[in-house]
Specification:
51% of the residues lie in helices and 21% in strands. It has helices at 5-18, 24-37, 44-58, 76-88, 122-134, and strands at residues 61-68, 94-101, 108-113, 116-121. The radius of gyration is 20 Å and the shape is elongated.
Length: 135
Amino acid sequence: MKLTSQQYAQALFEATTETNPKDHDKVLDNFVKILAQNGDLGKYDEIDAEFRKLKLESQGIKEAEVTVAKESEINRSLIEQLNSVAEATGLHSKLEIKQKIDESIIGGVIVRVDDTLIDASIKTQLNNLNKQLKL
């Protein structure tokens, strides 16, 4: 039976949560041996990303991917606004911002938290306007 990256991450998270921190090296060694036995060492990056999400969620933090056109567009004010929106919408989590640069969006911002996408980019607004003018 093949395990998914999410299943591996969940198992590792539970194992590290339930063991003494001084034994974590032993848990990780055993985990790597299991990955090698199953031929899944190539999934390491995916497992690590899923494990990180689980760890953040256990601390009441959600990862938010914020896409902007220029690096300078993400500042403390934007982060505070995003956290305020998250709190106001009942997310009850602080956000850890993972910044992504995409010059093709021209300006504005695209925010993804879990399966929720908020696209306030200029590119999308222009595309929507173009569609409306063609009607």
